Structures are given as structure tokens and as C-alpha cells.
Amino acid sequence: MSSEPAFDEDRAFDHQLPRRIRMKSGVHFTPIAVARCAARLLAPRPGMRVLDVGSGPGKFCVVAACEVPQATFAGVEIRPHLVHMARKLASRVGVQNVSFVHADAMDVDWSVYDAFYFYNPFAEQLHEEAFLLDRSMSVESSRFGEYVMAARQRLSAAAVGTRLVTYHSFGASAPPGYDFAESHTIGSDRLELWIKTRHICPCPVDAADG
Ligand SMILES: C[S@@+](CC[C@H](N)C(=O)[O-])C[C@H]1O[C@@H](n2cnc3c(N)ncnc32)[C@H](O)[C@@H]1O
User: Fold this and answer.
1) Any ligand 1 atom below 6 A from CB of 83
2) I need a labelling partner for 117 at 20 to 30 A (CA). Which of 44, 78, 140, 164 fits?
3) Which numbered atom of ligand 1 lies nearest the CA of 124?
4) With 0-12 CB in 10 A as exposed, 13-18 as middle and 19+ as buried, what is 7?
5) pLDDT tens, 31-79?
């Protein structure tokens, strides 16, 4: 079956991660075949800068950086120990065009990136304890909506031409101004590419309308 070699490849790659994190890979981290396809969709031109929103232990960024060496991939991750793991992984693989920052994704400047990758970074806010990557991040279901709203605002403010790739989506359609460009199905996984084609100004409330 065609899915078998990809599984083996993921298993070998995940072996570079500590066991407790490796065990979560199948659910929480992007498979290699998906990461390669996403990387090409995100960075079709040399010099493009891509942000992985919620980069975990760096699997997507490291695979993507190997796949498209003429682009740069940055990961922002809220769990500090995962940032540490990601930096170790990048140096073990020997890839240079990748970096990781420890921060809440809402606290970094999105305007310096040309493309954004989302693999459900905020989904843990909605789930039961068994789904959590670990217990180091506090979760609260009301925060999911706040994060999604804040991410949509940042994407809305991005430049025309900005690319957005979602893996299993982030629970909603892309923000206004983004057009669906293409989708790819890899096994049971679906990647979608959206491209910002126009700037949509938030309508100011006319004072005369009260
Ligand atoms: C589903 S994992 C995806 C990991 C990686 N992008 C990949 O595809 O392999 C989502 C990650 O987002 C991180 N995360 C959740 N909320 C975050 C936030 N507000 N800012 C930065 N990272 C966040 C989680 O800690 C987790 O590592």
C-alpha cells in the first residue's frame, strides 16, 4: 500500500524526538508527505518567509526547510520545551533556513511574513485532557474563539499576495479577501491553499447612522 513507506518515514523521523512527544506525533504534528506538499504551496518563489503558527517540536518547519531550501521557515510556539526541542531537531538535521521563537503567536509581528501555515494551533483549547499534547499549557474553551478571531484579524491585515495553507483547516473559512486557490488530498489528509487577492477595509460605522 502506498501509505506504508510514508508511515515508516514518519516513524524514523519522529525517532529524533523524545519518546513522550513522539507518541503524540500521529495526532498533533504534520506528517512528512503533507509537510513537503505544504512547503511547496507556501513558498513557490525564492526568498519567501513562512510562519508556522504553533510549531510544536519543529517537525513541519524542519521538513519544509529541507524541501524548499530557498525559502525561510519560522515557527512560533507557546510551550518553551517544544521550542528547545525544535532548535535541537533543526541542528541535528543540519538545516539552516529555519528558526524558532518562544512566544504566544499573537505577540509576534505577522507583517514580516509572506505565508502562514496552520495545523489547528488552538484546537487544544476545545478538547478534553486526553487530547492535550501535555499539561504545560492552560486551556479554556472560551479562548478558542478569541484566538481564531485574533488570527483572522492578523491575516486580514496582511499584504495582498499572502499565502495561507491549512491542514485539516482551522475550523472556519479563510478571512475576507482570501480566495481559495487549490486543495491537495494526501491519504485522508486535506491541505488547502488560500491566497489574499484584495484588501477589504473594515466598514467604519457612520456617525450619522448612530
Ligand atoms: C497541532 S500542533 C502543530 C505543530 C506543528 N505546526 C506541526 O504541524 O507539526 C499545535 C501547536 O500549537 C501550539 N500553540 C497553541 N497555542 C499557541 C499559541 N497561542 N501561540 C503559539 N503556539 C501555540 C501548541 O503548543 C502546539 O505545539
Assistant:
1) no
2) 140
3) 15
4) middle
5) 999 999 999 999 999 999 999 999 999 999 999 999 999 999 999 999 9
